[in-house]
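Reopening this ticket.

The earlier resolution said the output was attached, but the attachment link was broken on my side. Pasting everything inline this time so it's all in one place.
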Amino acid sequence: MGGVLLTGGAFGLVRVWEAERTEREFRWQAESRVQVIGTTLRSYEESLYAMRDLLDASADVKEAEFRRAASAQLARHPGLEALEWLKHIAQSSRAQIEELHRGADGAAWFIRDEMGGAMPAPERKDYLPVLYREPAAGAQALIGVDQFSGPHQRAIARAIEEGEIAATRRIPLHDGAPADEEGLAILLPVFEKGAKPASAEERRAELRGVVRGVFRLRDLALHTVAGAEARALDLRLLDRTPAGTEPHLFSLVNGHYEAVAPPEPLGAGRGLSAVLPLSCAGRQWELHARPSAAWLAERRTIYPHAFLAAGLCFTALLASWQRQRHRRAAEIERLVATRTEELRRAQAELREDVRVRLAAEQRYRAFVEQSTEAIWHFEIEPPMPLELPEETQIDYLLAHAVIAECNDVCARMYGRERAAEMVGVRLGELMPRSTSANIAHLREYVRARFRVVDSESHEVDRQGVERVFLNNIIGIVEDGKLVGSWGTQRDMTGQRRTEQALRENEQRLRLAMEAAVVGTWEWDRRSDRLTWSDQLREILAVTPDENGGTYAAYHARIHPEDRKRVGRVFAQALVRGEEVECEYRIVRGSGETLWVVTRGAVRRAASGEILGLLGATLDVTARRLAQEERAKLDQKLQDAQKLESLGVLAGGIAHDFNNLLTGILGNASLARMDLAPTSPAQSCLAQIEQASQRAAELCKQMLAYSGKGRFVVQSLDLSQLVEDAAPLLQVSVGKNAALKFRLASNLPAVSADVTQLRQILMNLVINASDAFDGRSGVIEITTGVMRADAAYFAGTNLAPVLPEGDYVFLEVSDNGCGMDAETQKRIFDPFFTTKFTGRGLGLAAVLGIVRGHKGALKVYSEVGRGSTFKLLLPSAGTPAEALPADTRALETWRGSGVVLVVDDEETVRGVASRMLRVSGFEPVVVSNGSDAIEVFTARCSEIVAVMLDLTMPQMDGAETFTELRRIKPELKVLLMSGFNEQDVINRFAGKGLAGFLQKPFKPDALREKLRAMLG
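Inline output:
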């Protein structure tokens, strides 16, 4: 009894498990059908979006372009019946559109209603006629029919109102089609600016038209059940969209398509069924499903009955039955798992296929837009017949091939910014027929039946520059004619130029190697035998008996400082089996040191054992010396450029500072003249004058450094100058420093400024005194004549290009602390000092004075042994003049008349005015050259002299001087400046300049200049 009960319970459990498994498989089958239908519908919608992208890319899409793109979509989606372009046309444009689309034979074309037959449609605000359709065969009656009056007008209105894709109810595929040849139309609005407008009114106003796609319900249904499980389910697809009149779309019973609705709902009288929702372009569908009888029968097993039969002999066969049950259960689970995995893989493959198709479409679009290569499309209007002769075809392509589209990369290759600028350009404008490479390229294209790979062309860009392109082209042939070409190209101009340069360099290198003398050698590791070529023995200046014949003998000839490094390089090459390259010095048999470069390679046996080295040695002494010389020249040039830049800065600062000092010093001097000698303010003003004079001296040093100091050139005897300055030098050095003079007699004269040379001498002596650092020492001053050549000048500091010959020198040496190499590099930098802060312009000023006198300066110094500064000046070729005294007696003199003062600094104008009044003159002041010309023109007869600033904005002193002298040639002009007097005088040589006044100046200096000018 227990066995029977157990058997009955097992029978019921198996039946329940079997029912649950069947229901799970049925649910999965139904959901898979919904996913397949949804995926298929989305692919149909994607085809409409692809057509909309084509329409968005061009304001006026030609019928051939539309049909070509539509054909590709129809081939990709077999369920599509047709693709149409419904163009939105306003009443005002109707006549123009109808005339534009009149047939080539003159046949009339007009917009008509759905039911209007051959009659034109009545006048309305706007129309939506079918403009293009693919396929066009058999559907000529649809072209021109206004869809605003047709059966789809409600769906069209919804699509425009919402700006989204919309579907119609079930429709016949064409007039008179049977019931099983029905389908649906999907409508996608296209707007003027591409993006969907925000409001319904804007969408209506910016509507360009509607893309309509018609697909077959039969294909949709049969695609749904494709596969091994085609007859598993009976399906019915219903349209549940509100206000729908015909809900039935199609039915599938036992795998057969039925367009007519069945007499009873699916699942009537049966317990297992499903209703699943589905959305299609704004319409709400339902998929009703039930399992077919055959499928259910396949799901029923004998397991319940087997369990029932086995229960009858439960007691006797209990152990065997238990083992059998476990095996069968495991087998069932395995079968279920296997079947589930197969279904899962099938579903995954289906999803992957959909994803791959969408990704391929996206990659194609991204490829064109983001490609680094140029992509272009030529159209040939009219198309080229293929039976034309070869040369005629080449001429035809150059004349009739026109760019229809390309990407921005292509436009930039031809010197344009955007792809739109290339549209309409003919091939002949880009590819000159006179270039033989272009004819060869086109001939290859024609002979290969309009398909070439990596063919080179020589074309011209917008600026007429020749460019080299590598092309891949495929032609489009229709009806025996070439209608266009697609292609890509890469710009090879830079690469071709590089290849040409490489060829030229290789040729130059080959010639150089042929001309060079290179010695070769070979070393056998086992025997330590080193074999030299005759060229190497010539380089090393040894005879065959002197080479030693071993590596050790050669190694001994390497310079001692390089020997260890070279040995390490060769040892590493032998250990690692690498090539060796090394530059080092070697001592020739004559004792001369050479720089050589040795390159070698390892020699190996067939077993891989290293047998030795084989290489060549090249004498690079000349190159090495040239590099060292170039490095020295580069350093000199950098130093010169640095000092030149700093000199310009120092000169500019000193010039502006001199203008300020003119006001300070002049006002202080005038104030002292106005005050009584016993006034308490006299001492304060005297200190102001003293500080101003010190600042003026600093300006002189800055101007000297910049090479724009005040030079009063005369012929001088250097020995006499040192003798006259000796008393001042004795009191300037410390008590621990002893001066020693070695002055040559009868020296040739030099052309120089005595004040500037005194400054050089003073600075060098004071620097030498500071070098003792509290210790006792000797400063020796020497003069004489020496011969200097180019080699000597190469070691001087910033020497100009001076001719070889005899030069007068002044040498100041000391036995102080000396300088290291790093300090010597910086001693001429402004404000560099090894002493306390506030020093550092002395040597910089010395260098500026030397440069201004076209001389040279050489420095010798060793740490702990002292320093020597030697100044070289060219001979003047004239006798020496007597040196002027350092001080001059002030003279009392007064003049009369009007003096015009021209300066852009208000302070200078004020001080000059007061000084002129003190000297008896009536001043008239202006701030620029233009005002000076105007005032002088008005008062020419009463102005006796002009004080003119050299540097002014707009109209400078030189221009003003020229214009004033043009008005009155005999006019006395006193030029004022903080720059070099000699440069100014040279600039105005022969132009009648009456005098020069250095800023800053005191009343006595101005009075003396005026007295010299006016008498």
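Reporter confirms the inline version is readable. The longest strand covers residues 466-478. Residues 2-57 form the longest helix (56 residues).
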